């Protein structure tokens, strides 16, 4: 499946009320290609010729996917519930689309398991009155995407 078709399919999923496909393998492929490109750009990998796909194109794909995943407010609500309880939303109440979007979000942004998030938030909560939680969360979870760190901080403030 081409990258354009993957993005188009994801866009249709996010903007429509009907779940057309619950495929997350395509997202894994995109994530792998973007990670490969970033490793080339940072010099962690070398190649005798230019990359497989142009880096500007891959950068725009990455940006588009992140925009899609941040489009739905339901994803943020479900993410906060996931952080607090460690449970997936009830598909009977929230619908299959919400589960699909949450799984894409967790996969794309490499969200740590809920137990790790809960431990980090518990350690930071007493210090919250004196400083922002974002730098502390970043130190505790260095591989976690900035978007997720921001949502964890919001979750902590709303608790």
TrEMBL record:
<dbReference type="GO" id="GO:0031145">
    <property type="term" value="P:anaphase-promoting complex-dependent catabolic process"/>
</dbReference>
<dbReference type="GO" id="GO:0070979">
    <property type="term" value="P:protein K11-linked ubiquitination"/>
</dbReference>
<feature type="domain" description="Anaphase-promoting complex subunit 1 C-terminal">
    <location>
        <begin position="1"/>
        <end position="112"/>
    </location>
</feature>
<dbReference type="InterPro" id="IPR024990">
    <property type="entry name" value="Apc1"/>
</dbReference>
<dbReference type="GO" id="GO:0005680">
    <property type="term" value="C:anaphase-promoting complex"/>
</dbReference>
<protein>
    <recommendedName>
        <fullName>Anaphase-promoting complex subunit 1 C-terminal domain-containing protein</fullName>
    </recommendedName>
</protein>
<dbReference type="InterPro" id="IPR041221">
    <property type="entry name" value="APC1_C"/>
</dbReference>
<dbReference type="GO" id="GO:0051301">
    <property type="term" value="P:cell division"/>
</dbReference>
<keyword id="KW-0131">Cell cycle</keyword>
<keyword id="KW-0132">Cell division</keyword>
<dbReference type="Pfam" id="PF18122">
    <property type="entry name" value="APC1_C"/>
</dbReference>
<keyword id="KW-0498">Mitosis</keyword>
<dbReference type="GO" id="GO:0007091">
    <property type="term" value="P:metaphase/anaphase transition of mitotic cell cycle"/>
</dbReference>
<dbReference type="GO" id="GO:0060090">
    <property type="term" value="F:molecular adaptor activity"/>
</dbReference>
């Amino acid at each position: 499946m081409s990258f354009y078709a993957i993005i188009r399919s994801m866009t249709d999923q996010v903007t429509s009320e009907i779940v057309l496909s619950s495929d997350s393998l395509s997202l894994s492929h995109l994530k792998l290609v973007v990670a490969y490109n970033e490793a080339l750009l940072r010099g962690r990998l070398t190649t005798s010729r230019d990359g497989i796909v142009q880096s500007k194109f891959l950068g725009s794909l990455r940006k588009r996917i992140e925009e899609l995943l941040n489009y739905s407010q339901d994803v943020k609500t479900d993410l906060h519930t996931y952080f607090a309880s460690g449970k997936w939303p009830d598909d009977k109440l929230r619908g299959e689309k919400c589960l699909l979007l949450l799984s894409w979000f967790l996969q794309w942004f490499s969200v740590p398991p809920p137990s790790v998030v809960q431990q980090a938030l518990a350690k930071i909560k007493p210090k919250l009155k004196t400083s922002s939680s974002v730098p502390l969360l970043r130190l505790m979870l260095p591989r976690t995407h900035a978007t997720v760190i921001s949502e964890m901080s919001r979750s902590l403030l709303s608790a």
